[in-house]
Design a protein that fits this description.
The chain is α+β, with helices and mostly antiparallel strands. The protein has 4 domains: about 90 residues; about 90 residues, PAS domain (Beta-Lactamase, 2-Layer Sandwich); about 70 residues, Helix Hairpins (Orthogonal Bundle); about 150 residues, Heat Shock Protein 90. It is built from 12 helices and 13 strands. The strands form 3 sheets. The chain has a 5-stranded antiparallel sheet with strand order 2-1-5-4-3, sandwiched between helices. β3 and β4 form a beta hairpin. α6 packs antiparallel against α7 and α9 runs antiparallel to α12. The radius of gyration is 39 Å and the shape is elongated.
């Protein structure tokens, strides 16, 4: 029993004792006890009324004068209120500092509620996105940024990567949008002005495309003369090895230029072609014939498995190039008499084109960088196979065109599996 409860029992006994003695003398014990209990209840009701009045009207002031256990209850409530007020002030101060910090950022920061309506934004958002304080508050953000690509990204994601779009308020400027979800579907949008980065990237693309295009003509001329001299019967034997090496290197450079031009076209995507249904069984059979011719000296076993009735909706020339790169890589890095399995399958959500080999494999630290241009796991090994270092970069860009991704699984000295994962929307029967 707590001390307060003991005090309350003593108080009740004291009140009953005051009325019990006169009642006993008058031989009215029951009436005396009843009157004592009534007075005790009235005192409690009076304290309860004071407490209710204080909570309802003046709860920020100090508690009223109460008696008994009610005094302790009021003090505890007042203490909790003071702690809550202090915590509230601290939280408001933290929010104020956070908003002040976000207001000072160069990036635009926007908060939206669970329905996508604007709640708060910093000054950079007013400059970059054109939001107006006092006018746009509470409006749906997709009513202000009306680009269909942004609307789809904001509503559906995925938010693992941002989206780059032309600015809807400033011509010739580009903005990167990144959304993070929190709470009950609340979202924070961060937007960056990436105009300078976009211009530099475009300059790089233009430079690579122009240089590659300009190299094509002199390379063709050089390759023609080298081939003519290499095939000449009057060529001294001591020059034959030199011309053979020149011929190999000119062919390698020509392949590099062709890959660079293909990458430039895939990145620019200036020509929008209509996708067509690709007969996967027919395409894979053609690729197997080419692979058999390519690996004839290695005597490898190339297996085709078509386990899906679906065709692929896409650009056949680009798809062929991507699949051919994967198959060629598998052949290059698989030893003689090894096995390469090309498999087309599907499940309820995706279609899968996988190329599995029994080659030397790749260590895990290299896998995340394999699709970078010119990235070499082993420079000596890549030079020996005559690769350009652009094959997997081409595969990645072709898959991006078809809303697909590339998954890579590999173990050293066991083999590798490269899997193209296509969404159900690009599969047709």
């Amino acid at each position: 029993m707590t001390s307060l409860l003991k005090e309350e029992i003593i108080r009740l006994a004291y009140i009953l004792g005051i009325f019990a003695l006169p009642a006993w003398l008058l031989r009215a014990e029951v009436q005396g006890l009843f009157l004592g209990l009534l007075i005790y209840v009235i005192l409690h009701l009076r304290n309860l009324h004071k407490l209710h009045h204080w909570l309802k009207n003046n709860h920020k002031d100090t508690p009223p004068e109460l008696s008994g256990i009610w005094e302790d209850i009021a003090e505890n409530i007042y203490r909790l209120q003071q702690n809550e007020q202090a915590a509230k002030h601290n939280l408001l101060a933290i929010i104020a500092r956070a908003r002040t910090s976000m207001s000072a950022l160069e990036e635009a920061v926007v908060l939206t509620d669970g329905h996508g309506n604007l709640e708060w934004w910093n000054r950079s958002a007013e400059k970059l996105l054109g939001f107006k304080d006092g006018i746009d508050n509470g409006k749906p953000i997709i009513n202000l940024i009306r680009d269909p690509a942004f609307i789809h990204y904001f509503d559906h994601g995925p938010y693992t990567e941002g989206i780059k779009l032309p600015s809807w308020t400033h011509p010739n400027r580009y903005v990167q949008y990144e959304v993070t979800r929190f709470g009950h579907n609340d979202r924070v949008l961060i937007a960056y002005d990436i105009t300078r980065l976009h211009q530099l990237e475009q300059m790089r693309k233009d430079f690579v495309a122009n240089v590659s295009h300009e190299l094509r003509t002199p390379l063709t001329v050089l390759s023609g003369y080298i081939e003519t001299f290499a095939d000449s019967p009057d060529l001294p034997s001591r020059w034959q090895r030199a011309f053979q090496q020149m011929q190999q290197q000119s062919l390698r450079m020509n392949n590099l230029v062709n890959d660079l031009l293909l990458l430039s076209r895939l990145e620019s995507d200036t020509v929008k072609q209509a996708p067509k249904a690709i007969n996967m069984k027919h395409l894979l059979e053609q690729l197997r014939q080419e692979a058999n011719a390519y690996s004839a000296d290695k005597q490898q076993n190339i297996i085709i498995q078509v386990n899906s009735p679906y065709q692929l909706l896409g650009l056949e020339a680009d798809i062929r190039s991507a699949f051919s790169n994967l198959i060629t890589n598998a052949i290059k890095y698989t030893p003689a008499h090894g096995e390469v399995t090309i498999r087309w399958s599907n499940d309820e959500k995706y279609g899968y084109l996988s190329v599995q080999d029994t080659g030397m494999g790749i260590e895990s630290q290299h896998i995340s960088r394999l699709t970078e241009r010119f990235y070499r796991v082993d420079a000596a090994r890549s030079s020996a196979t005559g690769g350009t270092g652009l094959g997997l970069a081409i595969v990645k860009h072709v898959l991006l065109q078809h809303k697909a991704i590339l998954n890579i699984n590999s173990k050293p000295n066991v083999g590798s599996t490269f899997t193209c994962v296509f969404p159900k929307e690009v599969l047709v029967e």
